[in-house]
Every structure is written in C-alpha cells, then in structure tokens.
Amino acid sequence: MRKSLPVLRQASGLEASATAKPPIVTARRSIVPKPSNLSTRPWGNRVSDGFIVMGSRAQTKVDGGVLSRKSIKPAVKTMITAPNTQRNSKSNHLFTMKKLKPRPADLSKRKQQDNKASVSKNILSVVSNEESAPEEENISGGTIIARRKSDRRNSFTCSIMSRSKLLKEGSKVKSEEILPNIDDDRNHLEVCDYVDDIYQYYWVMEGQSPLLKNYMGIQKEITPQMRGILINWLVEVHLKFDLMQETLFLTATLLDRYLSLESIKKNEMQLVGLTALLLASKYEDFWHPRVTDLVSISAESYTRDQMLQMEKTMLKKLKFRLNEPTPYVFMLRFLKAAQSNHMKFEHLAFYLIELCLVEYEALSYKPSMLCASAIYVARCTLQMEPPWTPLLSKHARYEESHIRSCAKMVLKFHRAAKTTMLKVSHEKYAKLDYCRVANIKPLDRLPM
To answer: What is the dihedral of CA 426, 432, 434, 438, to 10 degrees?
Structure first.
C-alpha cells in the first residue's frame, strides 16, 4: 500500500496540472492561446491550421503593448493549411515550449482536428481590421474569420460605371440594329474615327453663327439683286479656273460674312468677290489662281496691290476664321445618309443647293437646313420612296415636318431656274457631265 502512494500523488499532480488554466503564449504580432477542450462555444470548434490555434473568447487575453504595435492598415493574412507532418511538428514544438504533457484525450482530440483540417486545404483565414477594432477595445475573443476563397469584390463606384457602360453598349447595339452605319471603315480617307467629332464641330459652329438674313441693312450702296449678280458671275469664274466644288461654297460664305461686318461701296463689290474666291481657293483647293489672273479677269478694274490689301483687310475682319460650316460639308454627309448610288440624284441635290447661293432669301435658313431641304426635294422629284428616311433624320437632325417650309422655297427656286436672269448654274448642270439634271421637270408642289 505504501508503494502505491507516490503513484497516486503523481497522477493527482498530473490531473491538477491538466485542470489548471492553460497559459497564453504572447508573440510580437500574434496571440497564440493554448487550445482547451472544456469550452463548448462555437469559437472552440474552429479548425486549427497549425499556425494559429483557435481559442474561446474567454481564454483570449490581449496585451496592451501588443495592440499598440499593430498596424492601423487592414491586415489580411492568407495561410494555407500545412501538411499533417508540419502541423504535428509545430504543435509539438509549442507544447515543448510549455513543458506540458498532453493527456491521451487531448491527443485523440488533436488527431480528429488534424483530420478535419487536412480536408479544408482551400480555407483562408482573413483578419479584418474593421472587425478587430471593437474586439480589441473589449479585449474579447479572436478576430479570425474563415471563409472560402473568392474573387475580389468590386467597389460601389466600379459597379455603377460598369452598369452604365453596359447600358450604353446595349442602347448602341439597339440603335445599330435599327439604323445601319454609313461610314466605310476600310477607307482610311473617310477618317471614320474622327468624322463624328468633325461634324459635331460643324454643328456647334453653325449654332453659334447668327443668320445673315438682314445684313443688307448696314449696306448703303448695294442691294440683294447686286449680290445675286456678283455670285452668279463668281460661279462662272469658278468654272473658268476649274476649281473644286467646296471652293465655290466657301467663297459665297466668306463674301456674306464680310458684307455683314463691313459696309462697302458699289465699285468695290467685284474686288471683294474676287478676294473671297482667292481666300477660299487657298484654303480648300489644290492650287489657287494667281493674283494677276484675277486682276485680268476683272478687266483690269483693280490693281494687284489693291487685291492684296483687300485680302489683308478681309482676313483681319474675319479674324482669320476660314473654316466655316458651308452647305457643301453638310451635303456630303447627308448624301451618304441617303444611301443612294444614283449619280443623277447627287447632281440634282447639288444643283438645287447651288440655286440657293444666288438668292438672298436663302440666308434665312441655316446651311444644314438648306441641304436637308434640297435632298428632300430631289428625292421627291425623282420619286424616291420614302422621301425622308429615319437614317436621314438621324444624321440631318431634322424631321420631315421641320424642313417643309424650306423645301417649298427650294422648289420655288427650281421652278424659276429656267426663266431667271441668273442662268449660269442652270447652264452648268444642263451639261452631260452633270447628267443634265437641269433639264428635269420640277414638281408642281410637294407631296402631302
């Protein structure tokens, strides 16, 4: 009996040491409490990965010095569960440091936990600073949250931007399904990447430019009829020098702009018109007529120095702004939107818009409105159905009801082209090069 007493004392000492509160190992940046099998809370059932040992909220004690050394930035620790051999070696190392001999029940419990941990190799341990802040104040429980690996969540701003982008793409696809694209991406000369920006500039410039329908009020010696005679003569000069079509329309635009800003004498009208043609050809054409040729075509009415001086005066008055939206630039775009390869239709549209150049009444409408009306009248004259398409409405930015009034004026000019005194444009488009569109009989009235 006496020999068994030391054995009983040793066993009771072992039980006392086992039932004692397990000490806590405090590291520099992590808190590693010893696991306990006595807790029944959910935090005690967490699976250990060999590096971080989960403990109950009541067992976790945080040192104030450790908290002060923690980084303010949110810390995310991703740890993949190690093999069983590494976990056993590291856990044995921890228990060796404590100089504690685990009970058999602890060893069996640890084996069960190791088996469960080996299944969850893809489980991540994420430590959130936002969730750890209130727990550090209360000094309660661990702050480790286990969840499956997932993609990074987008921010609220990114989700809004992606949603708006999807909506924009959806509306664009819907509009493209209804209306075809009029630009040829294979033709680099059409600058399809910039054509929308270019025409947006023209629309803005046209909106900022006031209508010149009343500029004759500042002129004392010239009249609208004299203006028409001058432009009719400039069309003939333009044909003689074989200049480009856009040069003619820019000439008329620069002439009207200058006359709306400066009052001139009657004997200066021809000089101003020739100077406007010189500036337009320098800006638009491949070459420009010589000053001496322009002086000679005016029957030596002016000198070379007078024309050069007028060129300087006009540039200063126009503030060197020569890139004005003319009917020609809008006509090119609208003809593409009409999607007609009929050369007779194109020549007829240009014929109608050229008839408007000599008429002072046409200045009551914007260049884009004149072009849209000319295309509408040309389609009606050639009996093209429908006379106004949704694609034309998109690019011309006018509905059929908007252009009816201007179209009636264009039709009036068309009906009077054969009987008027200003017949240069009529004779020009009566040639075979222009499909003789001037000989086409005009409509009696627009269709209802």
So the answer is: 30
Nearest Cα neighbor of 395 from 371, 411, 364, 377 is 371
Structure tokens at 383: 């009996």
Concatenated DSSP letters for 18-86? HHSPPPEEE-SS-EEEPP-SS--SGGGGPPP-SSS----TTT----HHHHHTS-SS------PPPPHHH
Q: State pLDDT tens for residues 80-105.
A: 444 454 444 444 544 444 444 445 55
pLDDT in tens, 161-196: 666 566 556 555 444 447 888 878 788 887 888 889
DSSP for 367-430 reads: HHHHHHHHHHHHHHHTT-SSSS-HHHHHHH---TTTSHHHHHHHHHHHHTTTTSS--HHHHHHT
Residue 28, φ and ψ in degrees, nearest 5: -70, -40
Chain center to CA of 412: 43
Given this model, what pLDDT does residue 192 score?
A: 84
Helix axis angle, 404-415 to 343-355, nearest 10°: 90
